[in-house]
Specification:
Largest interface: A-B, 35 and 38 residues
Oligomer: heterodimer
Strand content of chain B: 15-25%
Shape of chain B: elongated
Radius of gyration of chain A: 21 Å
Largest sheet of chain A: 9 strands, mixed
Number of strands of chain A: 11
CATH class of the largest domain in chain A: Alpha Beta
CATH topology of the largest domain in chain A: Rossmann fold
Shape of chain A: elongated
Helix content of chain B: 25-40%
Distance between the termini of chain A: 51 Å
CATH superfamily of the largest domain in chain B: P-loop containing nucleotide triphosphate hydrolases
């Protein structure tokens, strides 16, 4: 018997799942302080889960990495868990929604208090196939203390946690620490040594977290996921082929001449390229558009870098 | 005793005929003005009375009443002084003034005439109504002669009119002031170091009259670039020059003695400006704002995201229609406001987005919110968006090939404008082409079409964004003297799109 009868369900509010219920996530039940009750909006998936967490102030690189990894995990049949925050979390959820599996968002607030508010639509999309869950009562506000508590659920649900861009003393690092304490795997996507947001993650790698380049690096760690791994393998091989092709640049000599001058990380500007190539800027513009359309480069506010196409 | 003198004023930017009637009657000595005059007009009583007494006439010691007709039109300013003096003196002498003469000018206490605003507009209007002789302050003669082929008599001092009025003697035709030189061209393109990309965008903006947004951290030369734009615009046609001169005259920006202004205006309002000051408004009568002062020229809005939201919203109508309908309590006016908008802003709140040497610390949300300060309808009108990066110190010192001068660029701009004129004799320029007009004017070759479709798909361009690309590609093709738009022009145009 439930000690408290459920209030009638309202809009933006889901059903309750108790620790004793059969559909309570099994992995979460194993941690030493599992929440007694989860409020669930949507349907909690039963597939294996992996968490992707990281900075709210992620760089475009971090958001791309999270997006791609989540999509590939989702396509391999893995449920991506994250915290619905801005930056990496949102990119992970969006990437997972592009894949074939549902995704789970763990909120720190009550189901009726969307935080951040601009993610209301994203939460709806997540709940449509997967679930938005929280242990917080309706009306719980986004107070600072709620987030570390929420993080133990993110890691508790998951077989492992992938950290993408985490500053020192960040929430993502707390999640990684909790994962380690809960006996879960910790992974990390590396960044540039010049990026302050990569410091936390690189420290994790030094401490033994596994460095992640592709979804295979994650799936390799779990014998249970061999089926998923096999599915991922073909996909990753195809991507790697595309990557190799992209990494060696475009075929057309006039486009290659521009691409060659570009860097993967450091952006360059039109004027700079025109001077380096001794070309008219309008010709540089033309070539940059063609490179951009075939996905070899990315432009952001006039700053152009190479793009990885996988 | 009654006498009439013809004069005029401006309402909005249009000349209006005003008849000044002076009546001198027995009764308590006094001087009254009726006919909806404002404070400055009530003060005319003192000016006119003292000027008359100091010019060898005697102000009548009787009851003097001035009526300004039409009575329902609000009147302001000091331009009726001369007409009032003429009417009062004539009434005293029981003579009438010629009906085809008009009198304009403000009086100083010693009887000297001072320049007034709006001479060009008033003279042009009275000329159409058949006035054949204009008495204007010497400083306004050049301006008046733009508007009329009739006799324009420059008056320096009320005393010069004494013999003319008392004996009917012919007035010596007085010479105008030496013509004032046009203000010099602002900044030459050759003086701007480096930044070929931004300069190219300026050329395209000038050639197609496209609005332009310069995005870059402070201190990278956005203001200098904007100031170079008037110098590469085509010379004003006579009709445009008359418009520009008339507006300058109405708002009191025309230098004394100046004739036709031939350089496109450049206006750079501060970001604290009120909506009324930006686009026009004012008290009982409509007053042109900065948008109208920039008519046929450049309106530069530095730090455009810092402008008041209501001021930015008020820009919509001039951006869409090239004019403003201003309604005030005493009537409404249409103010022309067809300018090229050059907006400048930081790329993000911290200013370092896209900077190779500094990491931008803004979240995507902060950047998005920052950009949202420039509302959709205004963004939709800005065809060209150009990053203006910080140049490395080494770049600034590097001696590069001599940059093109404004005169060279201007020749290409003029040629591109001529191609547009051939296509659409009635306008508009490429920057204001609508969707249906683009379908006719902006024909793409197969490769260009394919590229645009691929770009629309890959970059998720909205219909409006596609139109912006087409307008710019059309102008680039005009600069390259091509009838059809090819892939190269579409590709270049795509670089000037709004970037994420």
């Amino acid at each position: 018997m439930n000690p408290h009868p459920d209030p009638p369900p309202q809009a933006g509010e889901g059903k309750s799942v108790w620790l004793t219920d059969p559909d309570y996530p099994a992995l979460l039940r194993e941690i030493h302080d599992p929440p007694a009750r989860l409020y669930v909006n949507g349907q909690l998936p039963s597939e294996p889960m992996i968490a992707i967490v990281g900075s709210r102030h992620a760089t475009p690189y971090g958001r791309r990495a999270a997006h791609r990894l989540a999509r590939d995990l989702s396509d391999s049949g893995v449920v991506v868990v994250s915290g619905l925050a801005r930056g990496v979390d949102a990119a992970a959820h969006r990437g997972a929604l592009e894949g074939k599996s549902p995704t789970v968002a763990v909120m720190a607030t009550g189901l009726d208090r969307m935080y951040p508010p601009e993610h209301a639509e994203l939460a709806q999309a997540i709940a449509a196939s997967g679930a938005v869950i929280t242990e917080a009562e309706n009306g719980t506000l986004p107070l600072p203390g709620r987030f570390p508590v929420r993080n133990r659920i993110i890691s508790g649900l998951s077989l492992g946690v992938v950290v993408v861009e985490a500053a020192q003393r960040s929430g993502a690092l707390i999640t990684a620490r909790m994962a380690a304490e809960q006996g879960r795997e910790v992974f990390c996507v590396p960044g540039s040594i010049e990026n302050p947001l990569a410091i936390g993650g690189h420290q994790l790698i030094k401490d033994g977290a596994k460095l992640v380049q592709t979804v295979e690096d994650v799936l390799d760690e779990f014998a249970d996921l061999s089926r998923a791994r096999a599915r991922a393998h073909a996909r990753v091989r195809a991507h790697t082929r595309a990557r190799t092709r992209a990494d060696s640049g475009p075929q057309e000599p006039e486009l290659f001449a521009v691409w060659e001058l570009l860097d993967w990380v450091e952006p360059r500007h039109h004027d700079d390229l025109a001077a380096a190539m001794n070309l008219d800027v309008k010709e540089v513009s033309r070539r940059l558009t063609l490179l951009e359309m075939s996905g070899y480069i990315i432009g952001d506010c006039g700053a152009v870098t190479r793009a990885s196409r996988a | 005793m009654l006498a009439r003198a013809l004069s005029g004023t401006v309402f909005g930017l249009d000349g209006v005929r005003v008849e000044v009637e002076a009546n001198i009657a027995d009764g308590l000595p006094g001087f009254h003005i009726v006919g909806l005059g404002d404070r400055s007009l009530q003060e005319a009583r003192e000016r006119v009375k003292i000027a008359i007494n100091n010019s060898g006439f005697e102000f009548p010691g009787r009851r003097v009443t001035i009526n300004l007709a039409p009575a329902q039109l609000p009147k302001e300013g000091s331009g009726f002084d001369l007409a009032m003096a003429a009417a009062i003196v004539s009434a005293c002498q029981e003579r009438s003034l010629p009906v085809d003469a008009a009198w304009l000018g403000e009086l100083a206490f010693d009887g000297t005439l001072r320049a007034i605003r709006g001479t060009l507009a008033i003279v042009a209007h009275l000329d159409r109504l058949g006035v054949r002789r204009f008495y204007v302050p010497v400083a306004n003669v050049a301006e008046a002669r733009i508007a009329t082929a009739a006799t324009v008599l420059g008056v320096n001092h009320l005393r010069q009119l004494k013999a003319h009025w008392e004996t009917g003697a012919a007035l010596d035709v007085l010479s105008a002031l030496p013509p004032a030189a046009n203000p010099p061209v602002h900044v030459d393109m050759a003086d701007i170091h480096g930044q070929p990309y931004a300069k190219r965008a300026l050329e395209v903006a000038a050639a197609g009259a496209h609005h332009l947004l310069l995005v870059g951290p402070p201190g990278t030369g956005k203001t200098l670039l904007a100031r170079a734009l008037p110098g590469i615009l085509p010379p004003l046609s006579r009709r445009e020059a008359v418009e520009v001169t008339s507006i300058a005259s109405c708002v009191g920006m025309l230098p004394a003695g100046a004739g036709l202004l031939e350089v496109a205006p450049f206006r750079a309002p501060h970001h604290g400006i009120s909506p009324a000051a930006l686009v026009g408004g004012g008290g009982a009568t409509p007053r042109p704002g900065e948008a109208t002062r920039a008519h046929r020229g450049v309106l530069f809005m530095d730090e455009i995201t810092e402008f008041r939201r209501d001021a930015l919203e008020a820009l919509r109508q001039p951006l869409e229609e090239g004019r403003l309908a201003v309604a005030r309590s005493r009537g409404h006016a249409v103010l022309p406001a067809r300018f090229i908008l050059v907006a400048a802003s930081n790329p993000c709140p911290c200013g370092f987005a896209g900077d190779p040497r500094r990491l931008c610390e803004c979240t995507p949300q902060e950047r998005q919110r920052y950009r949202a300060r420039l509302s959709g309808p205004i963004r939709d009108r800005i065809d060209l968006q150009v990053p203006v990066p910080r140049q490395a110190a080494g770049e600034l010192l590097r001696t590069t090939a001599l940059a093109e001068s404004s005169a060279t660029v201007r020749e290409r701009v003029i040629a591109a404008r001529e191609r547009q004129r051939d296509r659409r004799p009635q306008g508009p320029w490429n920057g204001a082409l609508t969707g249906p007009q683009l379908r006719r004017d902006a024909a793409l070759d197969a490769a260009g079409q394919a590229l645009l479709e691929a770009a629309a798909e890959r970059l998720q361009l909205s219909g409006r964004a596609v139109h912006r690309v087409l307008r710019v590609a059309r102008t680039i093709a005009d600069l390259e003297e091509r009838t059809d738009i090819e892939q190269a022009q579409v590709a270049e145009a795509l670089q000037y799109r709004e970037s994420g």
